Amino acid sequence: MSEKSNLFLKEIEKLAWDQEMHSRINTSLNNWQSAFESGKERINHLSQVRQKAFSIKYKVLNQLDKYLVEFETNFQRNGGKVIWARNAEDAINEIITILTKEKLTKVIKSRSLVSEEIDLIQHLTKRKIEVLSTDTGEFITKIAGEKPFHPVAAALHKSRQEIVELISSQFDLHSVSSLDESVRFVVDHMKEFFATAQVSISGANFLIADSGSIAITENEGNILLGTALPKIQIILAGIEKIIPNMEDLDLFWPLLSTFASGQTMATYNTILSGPALVEHEETQMIVILLDNGRTDLLSKMNQRMSLACINCGACHNVSPVFRLIGGPAYNATYTGPIGAIKMPHLNGMKEYQHLSFASSLNGASTQICPMAIPIHEMLLFNRKEAVTKKLIPASDRKLIKRSTHMFKKRSRMNIDKTKIKKRLFNYFISKNWGNKRELPKIANKSFGQLWKENKSDQN
Length: 459
What we know:
The protein has three domains: 1-37 and 312-392, no CATH class; 38-294, 3-Layer(aba) Sandwich (Rossmann fold); 402-458, no CATH class. It is globular. It is built from 23 helices and ten strands. It is of the alpha/beta class. 38% of the residues are buried.
């Protein structure tokens, strides 16, 4: 069993029984459910819209090299610069090189899963570069010393009172007593940094091939402000973020907003097409296109469409496992059902294959996905790969082998001696069942026995 798997089991042992956390999560996600149910009614022919979105991304991922070159050509024509990064180390080195060359020490960073993927804040802080996260939720989790809880709502697990106390203690604010006052302080704190930041680093929701543009959507407006003021803008994006045409935003933006928060459209939607033309001032816009295992995932025919994910978080919201343990327990950048598919390929099947087994396979994630990604099927393909490569623990392989032997023959399943059944059941299952649940009881008589007795009574 890998180190990551052991850590995962220890985390879920604590979190699965944290009733207070579950109450807060369920309250937040139930609010999302209500907003989503209302929001999706505004999309006509939703199933066809989802299939169209799937088809567009299917085409893109099958011709990704073509669309990436098209984006690069058009973005450079707009005056921007494109840097290709094979892995996280390459991306970090490129960013450090830019900051060092320009002698920049203040960075304003928007919320981006790709920046978390490469541990951007940690690397910059080590080099004495001051970084401010503009997302309020990420700002809160950062000062709490925690990982973001949810891909859309980073501080979803925090109560209002916890946030107030956290900000008050962190900044020694004895006068702050409400959430509104706390948020107002955070906004004012950010404004001071905005005015002096030398470089902005943001992610991208979509990269538009035919215009060489970057599309960003948000509700706070901090990304827009952060990218507008500094003279150097760096956009970090995975190579899978491509969409073919500007017109495709008419499809993808409403889908993202509806499934993320129930909105028809997010409050702020920005399209960046190159550096600003400012007289007497030199501005730069640089896009770093990150591979970091995506090409390997692209080579998996049965799982490659997981790269069509638009990070709306909807599959997290309906996942029984995610609702029970939350994002940090995964110890991974990409969490929830979609993360359980992607992480074993992005960061190694040996270390992360256990995530693909952390699912009930109830199909809810597939039904809710705006991109119609068959998530539960891909989890099964991941599991098959883990078993084929003998990456699951020996005890689990033994259990599977012996269970298969038992279930292959009806006569073996119909053992009359109930004591033997109970012993076998307890021996094989009890260790994996956990010590906080009672094992199901085996009936004294099998269905076959009851059927025979019922027939004899009728005769």
